[in-house]
């Protein structure tokens, strides 16, 4: 994580905790990549990608999550699961922060079948 990302991740963590998720880890890193937040929501393990952009130019926050980025997130999540030994339902969520306000958008199960229920 870079210094600009920490405030965005803290804001996203507080936002999600306010909606009933419990953050278990931040900035999990391995050779495949990094998971911004790992949380639990009821019985589901949630891997959260946080994206902050000041504007929608160049595709905005959502447009910055490419197919290659999704593959790296999935590989990193699999690594986390293998190391932790956890066996529970999983999903990938995305928290988008836009503007200086910022406006927050939470996308649950953002990657659908590609990312969920492994």
Explain briefly what this protein structure is.
This protein is of the alpha+beta class. Strands 1-2-3-4-5 form a 5-stranded mixed sheet.
Describe it for me?
The protein has 4 helices and 5 strands, in the order H-E-E-E-H-H-E-E-H. It has 118 residues and is α+β, with helices and mostly antiparallel strands. The protein has one domain (5-115): Trna Endonuclease, Chain: A, domain 1 (3-Layer(aba) Sandwich). The longest helix has 18 residues, at 67-84.
| Count of distinct structural domains | 1
Specify the helix fraction band.
25-40%
Q: What is the N-to-C order of secondary-structure elements (H for helix, E for strand)?
A: HEEEHHEEH
Total beta-strand segments: 5
Mean pLDDT: 84
The CATH topology: Trna Endonuclease, Chain: A, domain 1
Number of helices: 4
Largest sheet: 5 strands, mixed
- Cα-atom Rg, whole angstroms? 13 Å
- Strand percentage lies at 35-45%
CATH class descriptor name:
Alpha Beta
